Amino acid sequence: MATSPPAPVPLRQSLQINGRVVGALLVREMLTRYGRHNIGFLWLFVEPMLFTLGVTALWTATKSVHGSDLPIVAFALTGYSSVLLWRNMPGRCIGALWANLSLMYHRNIKVLDIYTARLLLEFGGATISFAVLAIVFMAFGILAPPEDFLGVAAGWLLLAWFGCALAIFLGAMSHRSELVDKLWHPASYLLFPLSGAAFLVDALPLAAQKVVLWIPTVHGVEMVREGWFGSQARAHFDVGYLLVFNLLLSVAGLLMVRWVARRVVPE
User: Fold this and answer.
1) Where does the sequence pass through the membrane (predicted)?
2) Which of 5, 45, 57, 261 has a beta carbon 3.0–4.6 Å from 128's, enabling a disulfide?
């Protein structure tokens, strides 16, 4: 006797189920990563804060030159926080599926849910770290408030979108090849000085400007700095270029996830 196919789940109910799944995975990831000892999940944003403070102190002590008269603390905060935002996301998603194969027995858990939970954690940690440090620096008079908060937020969100798309693409790729994990770490360190965090595009020679503006993160960092410093710094960026790049990378990432999801074997 033939059995009838299951009735389709309404979109609203499907979204609610997906939200509960991602929420549960997020809590599980926090407990697995940080545990309940010491300050627990607070490490989520304390860790990036310590990295940013360390780089800020180093750049201040060495009187690093960045091609403008912007305060070095403000320059380091907007630059290195941006790096932590997009660079940590791929690092957390690469190999994530291998570590969670046992969860794939649950029919409601999808490959993309594993990545989404980790990306939400990274975005939250980097954003809270950036906001807390900015508020503390402003409270002590070290940093002036941003001239255009929405401009800062737009640049930050576009950088986050780039990090998420790159992380999903590399995360899915890493399930098919271990080389992704081996190559990402040196690549991420090589990208750091080219990402726009350590220089202003306007301070570079014209030929160098044309080269670095092919790198999508440069546009996002320049947007953040224009929003924060306004007329104090002349920014160079193309929002349309960054949007198109992020969109194409997102499509490539989702196609890779779909391809991997059809070949996942739960353990």
Assistant:
1) 40-62, 68-86, 119-143, 149-171, 183-201, 239-261
2) 45
For the four alpha carbons of 26, 27, 32 and 38, in that order, the dihedral sign comes to positive
Could you give the CA distance from residue 131 to residue 129 in angstroms, rounded to a whole number?
A: 6
For residue 178, the one-letter residue type is E
Cβ neighbours around 120 below 10 Å, total:
16
The reported pTM is: 0.88
CA separation for the pair 243, 226 (Å, rounded): 18
**How far, in Å, CA of 159 to CA of 174, rounded?**
22
Residue type for position 116: T
Nearest by Cα to 162 from 226, 216, 235: 216
Neighbours of 82 (CB within 10 A): 27
DSSP summary character for residue 62: T
Q: Which two tokens stand for residue 109?
A: 């858990």
Low pLDDT (below 70) residues in the chain: 1-8, 36-40, 62-68, 267
Report the SS3 class of residue 86: helix
Cα 202 off chain centre by? 25
51 close to 142: Cβ distance less than 8 angstroms: no
Q: How many CA atoms are closer than 13 Å to the CA of 144, on its beta-carbon side? A: 13
Q: What is the pLDDT of residue 79?
A: 85
E strands, the chain, are none
Number of CB atoms found within 10 A of residue 222's CB = 25
* Contacts of 51 by beta carbon, 8 Å cutoff, 6+ apart: 80, 84
Measured CA distances, 94 to 90, 99, 183, 245, 258 (Å) = 6, 10, 11, 21, 16
